[in-house]
Design goal:
Layout (H helix, E strand, L loop, with lengths): L6 E8 L5 H11 L17 H6 L6 E9 L2 E9 L7 H9 L3 E7 L6 H12 L3 E7 L8 H11 L8 E2 L8 H11 L12 E10 L3 E10 L7 E3 L4 E3 L3 E5 L3 E3 L8 E5 L13 E4 H6 L15 E7 L5 H14 L4 E7 L3 E8 L2 H14 L4 E3 L6 E5 L4 E4 L11 E16 L3 H10 L3 E8 L2 E9 H4 L3 H8 L5 E12 L1 E8 L2 E2 L5 E4 L3 H15 L7 E7 L2 E8 L15 H21 L6 H8 L2
Parallel strand pairs: 1-3, 1-4, 4-5, 5-6
Antiparallel strand pairs: 2-3, 7-8, 7-14, 8-13, 9-10, 9-14, 11-12, 11-13, 15-17, 15-18, 16-17, 19-20, 19-21, 21-23, 21-24, 22-23, 25-26, 25-27, 25-28, 28-29
């Protein structure tokens, strides 16, 4: 049995594509946790989308052993998600550690998420080891990156480790630095049991499996209690990751492993919750660990099946996905144009993208996804507040005194050559500049940016105007008042609720013109004239008209008096007027897809 003073718990944190998953694979090989014969690329990524996109979506822990002289050390590594949407999971996995490897790409330098993750680790009091990766690439400039790390993050030059995860250069030095500099866990085994849940997944036979770190006490198979969820259970299995699951009899203070709860609802086993013994919970001897938060969806989309008969399949597929991801929240919705569907809440736009891709790839569904929207907080005349997730939930405008929209603090790193284009882009998206800071050849720009602007193609446009060099990191900072309105789209004088959206009043006319113009291109012509209008309240802010087909009713006439022709044309005009009054329009699915491209 290894003493707790020889246990090292650490995470790897980095910006996307800076090589932390490759470094994890290299550490597995260097410590002989996985033999070279069995090792494959992106070993820790279980999701096919993770391997396809080269990103980490679901964090994964692993236990390794490393010998230094006569001493053997237990190294518990938690490979964290790399995208801003999963920032809460990153913070909880960091809370399960005493140290962190901050990986920076030698060809790209410090990026937005590098600084964000550094701040999270610093606030939690972790020992941070800066690691410059990809030093063997021709474009690498490790000396300049080291200077930037010293200047921006105030780290010591002696603490910086230079490695190549691809070739293995410097990995032995890194393992020695982990042993020497990351402190062992603090806590005592004779204290009441407190266990941090930093991730969870669903297993069809074992129920919900919680990824845990024992903060104090000893975790055994006995009646346990989830303090936030207020659920009591008897675990069916306790084990470690090696990197496959391996059952053990107990987890001691400082160790990382898993807990098969036997519970059937993932929502009960929440990230950040504290597990203690049922006896301690009844006697109220134990305080929960700090930092727990309820998952708050900040982006909402509606999913409708292309074929209405597939709605049952969509509900079944979403239910299975929700078993593995407690952050997904969904409820049934209905559209007159699109039929039955689901309104789904996500942590962010990447989270939504990944879920949609899994629904289509793994469950063979063809879906129409509405434009992403954010929750608005409205103040009513009776003094109450209400959260609105869909424009259709809005009460009468006369009852609303104020709209509040979610705001983010966005940090953008860009080469100086692209600063002007990036600043123009931010101004177009209602961002207000807070700070500019020079960092070597790059600039860090900090903005207050509305979340509603950020989720609609902002990231793609940022990459476009900066030739792919700019990077973005954001965090939600609360709500601010906004002059918002509901923009209704009317087709043949009928409101199409599925196309309605919340917009800023000053942009309502521009957005209305874009939408009506696109709808004119995709809605087929009818036997009568069709009006496409964008309206705010009772005011029409944009209009396009689709002309009617016109049958040549006078073709059969070969002469004669003009009054005969006028009589036929007048009769046709009267018929078209009647068709216009009673005609119905069936919108094609292309109409909804066109609106998403604005």
């Amino acid at each position: 049995m290894i003493s707790s003073r020889n246990v090292r718990n650490f995470s790897i944190i980095a910006h996307i594509d800076h090589g932390k998953t490759t470094l994890t694979d290299r550490l597995l090989r260097a410590t002989n946790t996985v033999s070279a014969r069995l090792l494959e690329e992106r070993m820790m990524d279980s999701n096919p989308i993770e391997k396809e996109r080269g990103i980490t979506i679901k964090l994964a822990p692993v236990r390794m052993f490393h010998s230094v002289g006569t001493e053997t050390y237990e190294l518990n590594l938690i490979d964290t998600p790399g995208h801003v949407d999963f920032g809460y999971e990153v913070s909880r996995s960091l809370a399960a550690c005493e140290g962190a490897l901050l990986v920076v790409d030698a060809t790209q330098g410090i990026q937005a998420q590098t600084l964000s993750n550094f701040e999270k680790a610093r606030v939690l009091g972790l020992k941070i080891i800066p690691v410059i990766n990809k030093i063997d690439l021709p474009a690498a400039d490790p000396d300049q990156v080291a200077l930037d790390l010293i200047e921006v993050l105030k780290v010591s030059e002696q603490d910086i480790v230079r490695v190549s995860a691809k070739s293995g250069a410097g990995v032995d030095t890194l393992l020695q630095a982990i042993v020497d500099h990351i402190p062992p866990p603090t806590g005592r085994e004779d204290e009441p049991l407190r266990v941090l849940v930093f991730a969870s997944l669903y297993h069809p036979h074992k129920g919900v499996i919680a990824y845990v770190r024992v903060m104090s006490g000893v975790l055994k198979r006995e009646q346990l209690h989830l303090m936030a969820a207020k659920a009591t259970f008897l675990p069916t299995e306790i084990g470690i990751f090696n990197p496959e699951m391996k059952e053990v009899t107990e987890l001691r203070m400082g160790e990382v492993g898993y807990l098969a709860t036997g519970l059937k609802e993932v929502a009960l086993v929440r990230v950040g919750d504290t597990v203690t013994t049922a006896v301690a919970a009844q006697q109220r001897k134990t305080l929960p660990l700090a930092g727990y938060k309820e998952p708050q969806p900040m982006v909402y989309m509606d999913f409708y099946p292309m074929d209405g008969d597939d709605f049952v399949l969509l509900v079944d597929a979403m239910g299975k996905l929700a078993l593995h991801d407690a952050a997904i929240q969904y409820q049934p919705t209905h559209s007159h144009a699109l039929g039955n569907g689901l309104r789904v809440g996500f942590l962010g736009i990447l989270h939504a993208d990944v879920v949609q891709e899994r629904l289509e790839d793994e469950y063979d569904l063809e879906l129409i996804a509405t434009s992403p929207s954010v929750p608005y907080r409205i103040h009513l005349t009776n003094g109450t507040e209400k959260m609105i997730h869909n424009p259709s939930e809005l009460p009468d405008p006369s009852e609303i005194t104020q709209y509040d929209e979610p705001m983010t603090l966005a940090t953008i790193y860009t080469p100086k050559d692209y600063l002007g284009a990036v600043m123009r882009l931010c101004e177009e998206h209602r961002a207000s500049l807070q700070e500019l800071q020079d960092i070597g050849s790059r600039v860090r720009a900090t903005y207050f940016l509305p979340l509603a602007e950020l989720i609609v193609q902002f990231h793609d446009r940022l990459k476009s105007v900066s030739s792919g060099f700019a990077s973005l990191e954001y965090e939600l900072i609360g709500y601010e008042p906004v002059d918002a309105v509901k923009l209704d789209i009317l087709v043949h004088h009928e409101v199409v609720e599925a196309l309605s959206q919340m917009v800023v009043r000053s942009q309502a006319q521009r957005i209305g013109r874009v939408i009506t113009k696109k709808l004119k291109e995709v809605i087929p012509r009818q036997q009568f004239e069709v009006a496409i209008q964008a309206a705010v309240g009772g005011d029409i802010v944009a209009r396009e008209t689709i002309g009617s087909y016109r049958k040549d009713v006078i073709a059969k006439l070969y002469g004669g008096d003009q009054t005969r022709k006028d009589k036929l044309l007048k009769k046709q005009k009267k018929g078209k007027k009647r068709m216009k009054e009673f005609g119905k329009i069936s919108l094609p699915q292309e109409a909804f897809l066109a609106v998403l491209e604005r």
